[in-house]
Specification:
two-stranded antiparallel ribbon; alpha+beta; single chain; 5 strands; three-stranded antiparallel β-sheet; globular; 46% helix
Length: 136
């Protein structure tokens, strides 16, 4: 078998559209015209993902190398995961909060994932599932 047919790097970098679902019913969230609300995400095999992971690791290593006592906190780890999601969010369609639809900017993405933990959980799961980035 030619394993290169299972290479997800390029498609993970290009991203795939995740259809956003209701956090309790699992029903697809739709625009008024019936089109799904989506978030386009890069996958875990993308350069975006790996660079964001390295930034977090390098920051921790630099702190440790400075001789300062390093304390890992749940808040710091959560912040690193949030920044990873921000780096992997390429675009979105139909995402709104605080009274209106928002442009897909790093600031708005960060706020959306902070205000909507269920959306953050959906995005994290999508990014980590390589099947979302394999061409069938």
């Amino acid at each position: 078998m030619d394993l290169s047919t299972l290479d997800t790097s390029a498609s993970a970098e290009a991203g795939a559209a995740m259809e956003v679902v209701h956090p309790t019913t699992g029903a697809a969230l739709l625009h008024e015209d019936g089109a799904p609300i989506t978030v386009t995400l890069a996958g875990e095999d993308s350069d975006r993902y790996r660079k964001a992971e390295r930034r977090a690791s390098n920051r921790r290593l630099a702190t440790a190398a400075s001789g300062r006592r390093v304390r890992a906190t749940a808040e710091a780890l959560e912040s690193d995961r949030l920044e990873l999601l921000v780096a992997c969010t390429i675009d979105w369609d139909g995402i709104g909060f605080d009274g209106g639809e928002k442009a897909c900017t790093p600031e708005n993405v960060r706020v959306a994932y902070q205000k909507l933990p269920w959306l953050r959980e959906q995005a994290e799961a999508f990014i980590m599932d390589r099947a979302n980035f394999l061409k069938v």
